[in-house]
Amino acid sequence: MEFNKMSWVLAFLGFMFLGGICKADGATHFYDFVLKETNFTRLCSTKSILTVNGSLPGPTITVQKGDTAFVNVHNQGLYGLTIHWHGVKQPRNPWSDGPENITQCPIPVGTNFTYEINFSTEEGTLWWHAHSDWTRATVYGAIIILPAANTTYPFATPDAQETLILGSWFKGDVMEIIEDALATGGEPNISDAFTINGQPGDLYSCSNETTYRWLVDSGKTYLLRVINAVMNEEQFFAIADHDLRVVAQDAAYIKPITTPYILITPGQTMDILVTANQPPSHYYIASTSFVDGNVTFNNSTTTAILQYNGNYSTPSTTPFPTLPDHDDDTAADNFTKQVRALASEDHPISVPLNISTSMYIAVSINERICANSSCAGPDGNALSASLNNISFQTPSISVLQAYYGGNTNGVYATNFPDIPPYFYNFTGDVANNTLYPSFGTRVRMINYGEGVEIVFQGTSVIAAENHPMHLHGFSFYLVGTGSGNFNSTTSPTTYNLVDPPEVNTIGVPKNGWAAIRFVADNPGVWFMHCHLERHASWGMDTVLIVRNGNTSESTIRGPPAYMPPCSNS
Predict the structure, then answer these.
(1) Residue 529's closest CA among 467, 437, 439?
(2) DSSP state, 17?
């Protein structure tokens, strides 16, 4: 989108002046994102929502592997916010990663900030979204990373492509919803609908005339890119009478899986081959919640229509896919356990075998004590959440800027614990163990080049459920999952160190554990958090800071000439 050529010149020179441009072999792309309020009508009513360039979803960024994109974000909205490029590793460049007050302060209203997005090893589908409070409910879009020049897919080139983004729609103002919940200490309101490419679909009121339709030609094979941008629920997804052949997850190729449905957590992306091999007609595409905990959630179903081109009679009944029940742990487990890295000569993996940093992180819902039992959560207290019994408090200035400038006093402490403060039966009768967390901004320092293993341990504190954990700045290997409590002796014997999937977001099973590994080869400040927004808002977050190595190529880049100020958002 053309916006203001002079603003592009100034922004580009700003990156050149201090931070420089990361050396890349690929092409350079330029985008303008204009944040503004736009009226949308859904579910029989009209409201103003924050959008990028007036659309929902927002614009798609399309690049090839190894390219660089500059995105100039002009904030014409009502409040400051930031944008995150979910799953993009941003080598040595956390300045453009985006989480609010972790790597930058919000872009003030009436100003602009240019992000430099450095694509490296990613290939496939990722996405971008706002990373300030709950603004990502309407500020999101796809990132398509095509194979590099003179390379191709590890499967037959599809005839065409399609992107479907799963989202949430709230009748109320999303910022007011989370602000009210945090003020009262209770659960935030659930969404009123799920959407596919911004449309709720036929099963909701006032929605059937705008249901999204994907037009296909009989006999052709399509590369379908599915993104879960839903706020608080994992999703089962299927297409009536059509098999899904999953070939990539989180912009990394996997051994193909043929399945009637997928499970996709908030934050995850999947690339799927779909062949239009059924009698020409209309077929429902559907997505519904997977929630296996005793929590409030949206139990509705969003739909779109796969519609064959050509002349035929419109069917009186449109076939509907069979989706698992919302709490079907077996269906969820059966899908996720099939996912394995392609691990081919052209797409190799490198699982770290020498581990020098090990962390065992208990993932919990908690309570914050309220005076006189005056809050709306359990026992008159406020709901909170924690990692290793530390409920993260977002600082008022950027962790990255404090770290880089060496002025960390009062911003954060470096004592995030490697193990829980107490060991108990995490997935059994937890009594009041760690019901009340401590609160603070604690980070974990990691030396450059270390092999890191993190075991996320689900707990039954207040409410056991599946947690989609996301780490910025890295793709990591999901080397193992299991039920119950992790056993440091027996559980590692079940690890897959041959072809584990390389991902950026994983679901920690309800009352179970998940183990990930990665090499800390990306210096910088990187956020780690649950991608269920209510949990992130309650404090289920922390920060990993990877120190510089001994060479210029293992050292964090300098900041750009301009960063949004921390005093005016």
Answers:
(1) 467
(2) I
> 253 φ, ψ to 5°?
-75, 145
What tens-digit pLDDT sequence spans the chain (569 residues)? 444 544 554 455 444 443 444 444 799 999 999 999 999 999 999 999 999 999 999 999 999 999 999 999 999 999 999 999 999 999 999 999 999 999 999 999 999 999 999 999 999 999 999 999 999 999 999 999 999 999 999 999 999 999 999 999 999 999 999 999 999 999 999 999 999 999 999 999 999 999 999 999 999 999 999 999 999 999 999 999 999 999 999 999 999 999 999 999 999 999 999 999 999 999 999 999 999 999 999 999 999 999 999 999 999 999 999 999 999 999 999 999 999 999 999 999 999 999 999 999 999 999 999 999 999 999 999 999 999 999 999 999 999 999 999 989 899 999 999 999 999 999 998 877 778 999 999 999 999 999 999 999 999 999 999 999 999 999 999 999 999 999 999 999 999 999 999 999 999 999 999 999 999 999 999 999 999 999 999 999 999 999 999 999 999 999 999 999 997 44
CA 162-238-126 angle, to 5 degrees, is: 45
Helix H, strand E, coil C: the string for 535-569 is: HHHHCCEEEEEECCCCCHHHCCCCCCCCCCCCCCC
Name the fold adopted by 25-151: Immunoglobulin-like (2.60.40)
- Is residue 529 within 8 A of residue 100, CB to CB? The reply is no
Select 153-348's CATH number: 2.60.120.330, 2.60.40.420, 2.40.160.40, 1.25.40.10.
2.60.40.420
Per domain, the residue ranges of the chain are 25-151, 153-348, 357-554
Does 3.20.20.370 match the CATH number of domain 357-554?
no
